[in-house]
């Protein structure tokens, strides 16, 4: 595998980010969610303004291989991990782990000791492998469809 490097999100990344999100949701989520749920979660015509505003409201790191964005993660600076997605062609290669480790280091530097996330059924095993525990099972309604997800949390400690 070629070297992966992380960098901050740029507004010019928006379309690539949305494409990764959409492909990951539809290709990886089919095992857990119905086609109608997937289409509500990742519609074929996304709201670009909403996406842009959301990404600009947090710290977003993108993982690149060469010049190609292959994954991304969002972090709000107060412990919420949001939008961890890797392109389906690059799953199970440690990309999500690299992104998560970077956010954990940012959180520690920010003085945060508790991380939380809202994990889909697809993402739950990954977060559990990183030490997150399920706090509550939730149902969220998106586009008229109910989707199951998990509120998860993890305590982090500075490394010495």
Automatic annotation (TrEMBL):
Signal sequence segment:
none
Q: What CDD domains does the annotation carry?
A: NAT_SF
Using the record's annotation, list all stretches that form the N-acetyltransferase domain. 4-157
Top-level lineage group: Bacteria
- MF (Gene Ontology): acyltransferase activity, transferring groups other than amino-acyl groups
What is the protein named?
Sll1671 protein
């Amino acid at each position: 595998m070629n070297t992966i490097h992380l960098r901050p999100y740029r507004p010019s990344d928006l379309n690539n980010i949305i494409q990764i999100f959409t492909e990951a949701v539809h290709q990886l989520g089919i095992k857990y969610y119905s086609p109608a749920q997937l289409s509500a979660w990742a519609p074929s015509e996304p709201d670009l303004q909403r996406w842009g505003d959301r990404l600009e409201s947090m710290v977003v790191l993108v993982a690149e291989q060469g010049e190609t964005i292959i994954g991304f993660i969002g972090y709000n600076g107060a412990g919420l991990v949001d939008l961890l997605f890797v392109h389906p062609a690059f799953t199970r290669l440690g990309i999500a782990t690299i992104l998560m480790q970077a956010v954990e280091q940012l959180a520690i530097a920010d003085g945060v000791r508790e991380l939380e996330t809202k994990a889909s059924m697809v993402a739950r095993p990954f977060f559990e492998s990183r030490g997150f525990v399920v706090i509550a099972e939730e149902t969220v309604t998106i586009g008229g469809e109910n989707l199951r997800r998990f509120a998860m949390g993890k305590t982090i400690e500075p490394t010495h």
